[in-house]
Amino acid sequence: MQNNKEWQVAYSVIEQLENAGFEAVIVGGAVRDTILGRPAHDVDVATNAMPDEVKSVFNHTVDIGIQHGTVLVIDPAGSVEVTTYRTDGEYTDHRRPEEVQFVRSLKEDLQRRDFTMNAIAMRRDGSFVDFYGGRQDIEAGVIRAVGDAQKRFSEDALRMLRAVRFSAQLGFLIESETLKAMQDKANNISWIARERIKAELDKLWVGKDVYNGIRKLEESNLVNYLNGTFQAKDWYEFNTQDKLLGWAYFAVLQGEHWREVLGEYRLSNKEMAFVKAVLEALKALKNGWTNIDYFLYTEQELEAACYFAELRQLDVQMPQQSIQEIQTMLPIRHKRELIVNGTDLLKWSGKKGGPWVKEALQAMLEAVVNGELQNDQQQIKNWIEHDYFKQE
Ligand SMILES: Nc1ccn([C@@H]2O[C@H](COP(=O)(O)OP(=O)(O)OP(=O)(O)O)[C@@H](O)[C@H]2O)c(=O)n1
């Protein structure tokens, strides 16, 4: 049993449903993580009450997925998702309401779930409802589909990638029938929305055993139907438990096609910017970084480039000091620290504005960052007049 606020809200909601004569339990990842001794935050409640009945028990609810049977219950202490027991194992948002079958039986609800470890329910008193040997599989470190594996993956092909992601997160094996079904159905992953695939890969990179996950991708043949190259041997030593570093390293492994490949996974602009910076920094590392590189890239980006250079055993010039120390010694850390701006330049030169202003500011920035020029009004003025304009 866990004791944070989310759990307390869930217990209180379950109690209120029980007092109204219904059955309600905690299900899914929260139960699995509790058994694993891991903190679980996303606490989902399942109940035999129909969605309208759930709404009648509580003063404040929001229909967040009412056609799929999910109601958000707003309790004074917090909120929790309450889902009516159902039989369909379809997990996309494209289901038509008539495809969703609500039932009163917990056993049937657990039966349509993906893996035995995710098909355990927990009552308010801390006891478990475990029809499919979920706890035993968790104990043994096994990912096993509930019942007919082929059927589970036909209902939702993303589940195959979930199996892979769990194997990376937990270091678990995939039971042989389940793996075989994955091999049979691997091509169906092509039909899954890219955003859903990305969300699983996000979690895979954060896993403590990414290598295990990529091996499962290979063994299941899923690699043949995903965008980009995945080879377990490249991931043997990768261990960052960081989503962004996962994507950046994946990009390194894609070579010149990285942009195309990552574009397919719909990374956010922020994520793409990070990946791009790391790749540029890695390229620059070949001849060793100059002050400009330490200025341009963040400590995290530079650290990532060093880490990847090591993993790939690249022939590069590694920094001799800590990146943080080098960065602290830079004459300036941000563009805005430059004492001179475009207006000053126009005034001094008496020239009309144009692209030259940007170029001159850039040259000035580089000279200051490189320590060739002091960040001082008079010195910069002299430099612009005597060196910069002359050489033009
Ligand atoms: N394709 C899916 C997705 C989910 N589930 C079921 O719905 C539960 C909740 O799913 P979700 O919140 O997406 O994942 P978790 O298993 O909770 O894992 P995590 O929170 O680590 O992503 C799962 O445990 C599982 O019982 C499923 O059967 N098939």
UniProtKB/TrEMBL annotation:
InterPro entries: Bact_CCA-adding_enz_type3_sf, CCA-adding_enz_C, CCA-adding_enz_firmicutes, NT_sf, PolA_pol_head_dom, PolyA_RNA-bd. Residues 25-144 form the Poly A polymerase head domain. Its EC number is 2.7.7.72. ATP binds at residues 29, 32, 113, 156, 159, 162, 165. Mg(2+) binds at residues 42, 44. Keywords: ATP-binding, Magnesium, Metal-binding, Nucleotide-binding, Nucleotidyltransferase, RNA repair, RNA-binding, Transferase, tRNA processing. CTP binds at residues 29, 32, 113, 156, 159, 162, 165. GO terms for molecular function: CCA tRNA nucleotidyltransferase activity. Residues 241-383 form the CCA-adding enzyme C-terminal domain. Residues 171-226 form the tRNA nucleotidyltransferase/poly(A) polymerase RNA and SrmB- binding domain. Gene3D superfamilies: 1.10.246.80, 1.20.58.560, Beta Polymerase, domain 2, cca-adding enzyme, domain 2. The keyword ATP-binding applies. Its cofactor is Mg(2+). It comes from the Bacteria. It catalyses: a tRNA with a 3' CCA end + 2 CTP + ATP = a tRNA with a 3' CCACCA end + 3 diphosphate; a tRNA precursor + 2 CTP + ATP = a tRNA with a 3' CCA end + 3 diphosphate. The keyword Membrane does not apply. Homodimer. HAMAP family: CCA_bact_type3. A single active site specifically recognizes both ATP and CTP and is responsible for their addition. Belongs to the tRNA nucleotidyltransferase/poly(A) polymerase family. Bacterial CCA-adding enzyme type 3 subfamily. Catalyzes the addition and repair of the essential 3'-terminal CCA sequence in tRNAs without using a nucleic acid template. Adds these three nucleotides in the order of C, C, and A to the tRNA nucleotide-73, using CTP and ATP as substrates and producing inorganic pyrophosphate. tRNA 3'-terminal CCA addition is required both for tRNA processing and repair. Also involved in tRNA surveillance by mediating tandem CCA addition to generate a CCACCA at the 3' terminus of unstable tRNAs. While stable tRNAs receive only 3'-terminal CCA, unstable tRNAs are marked with CCACCA and rapidly degraded. This is CCA-adding enzyme. The gene is cca.
